Amino acid sequence: MIASLKKNAALWLVMACGVLLDLTLMSLSLLWYPTVLGAGRASTVLVCGAMLLVYGSVGVGLPIKANPTVTTALKVGTVLGLIIGAIFVVDLIVEDFIDLGQEASSFSTLGFMALIFLCFGFAGASGTHKTSRLSLGILASLWSALLGVLIVLLFGFLLNFLFLQRLEHLLVSDYLSSGMSDPQAFTFFNAFDSASSHLIEAPILAGICGTLGVLIMQGRIALQGRGFRFFRHGD
Fold first, then answer.
1. How far is residue 29's CA from residue 233's CA, in Å, rounded to a whole number?
2. Inter-residue contact 168 to 183 (CB < 8 Å)
3. Phi, psi (deg, nearest 5) at residue 35
4. 112 and 87 in contact (C-beta within 8 Å)?
5. What is the torsional sign of CA 145, 129, 134, 113?
6. Contact (CB, 8 A) for 45 and 37
7. 35-52: per-residue pLDDT in tens?
8. CB of 45 closer than 8 Å to CB of 101
9. DSSP characters for the chain?
10. What is the largest CA-CA distance in the chain?
11. Distance (Å, whole) CA 168 – CA 175
12. How confident is the model at residue 5 (pLDDT cuts 50, 70, 90)?
């Protein structure tokens, strides 16, 4: 058992810490603002909790059981996941603290999203290049999405705790149409709503972009005259 836990400890510890920190901040949010759970909003919170548990199960279980080839793909995904998380963080900072105007802000958001999609694709291409497996290229992209989302959720909820009044001001129009009576609780509910979207959508987008990256890498390998198969014998 101890030997299993030592296997790829750095990989699964990063994921486990990310999940635990996110769950802790979410729990504190609900403890301070229990009205977040009112009027049918509990389902959004439950989705966040359930998805984080899935992330944690995959994030801990997969590295422990991974063979060396899968481990290589996970390491690629970890590096790209840290980069994606950093891009998410910069996007949040620009969105919440820099007044670019509506049009420029939209272009900024689209630019950051395009950069993240490129990272998903690069993770897929790099994972395939290093393992010679299409499936592991896609896995690298998915893994990068899981880690990137854990990072942005952590930073997003920290912003809510540290800059609550600033976010209240930014969300005032949404709050007025929400039907909630507590603007601070609404700010945290908005964080849960955004978190649930990221938790669900990021792996899907990573799968799509990662597959494109894998196919591009496969075409490059084919043009170079190198042999390629989806699965290698003995895996």
1. 50
2. yes
3. -65, -10
4. yes
5. positive
6. yes
7. 898 877 899 999 999 999
8. no
9. -HHHHHTTHHHHHHHHHHHHHHHHHHHHHHHH-GGGGTTTTHHHHHHHHHHHHHHHHHHHHHHHH--HHHHHHHHHHHHHHHHHHHHHHHHHHHHHH----HHHHHHHHHHHHHHHHHHHHHHHHHHHHHHS-HHHHHHHHHHHHHHHHHHHHHHHHHHHHHSHHHHHHHTHHHHHTT--S-HHHHHHHHHHHHHHHHHHHHHHHHHHHHHHHHHHHHHHHHHTT----SS-TT-
10. 65
11. 8
12. low
Q: How far is CA 160 from CA 53, 96, 118, 157, 223, in A?
A: 22, 11, 28, 5, 50
84: its two tokens: 């994606």
Kindly report the backbone phi and psi dihedral angles of residue 229, in degrees, each rounded to the nearest multiple of 5, phi listed first. Answer: -140, 150
Give the residue carrying structure tokens 């601070």.
184
Residues 202, 114 contacting (CB under 8 angstroms): no
Which tens digits make up the pLDDT trace of 62-119?
999 999 999 999 999 999 999 999 999 999 999 988 887 777 888 888 999 999 999 9
Q: Which residue has the tokens 């400890």?
A: 9
Q: For 93-152, what is the HEC assignment?
A: HHHHHCCCCHHHHHHHHHHHHHHHHHHHHHHHHHHHHHHCCHHHHHHHHHHHHHHHHHHH
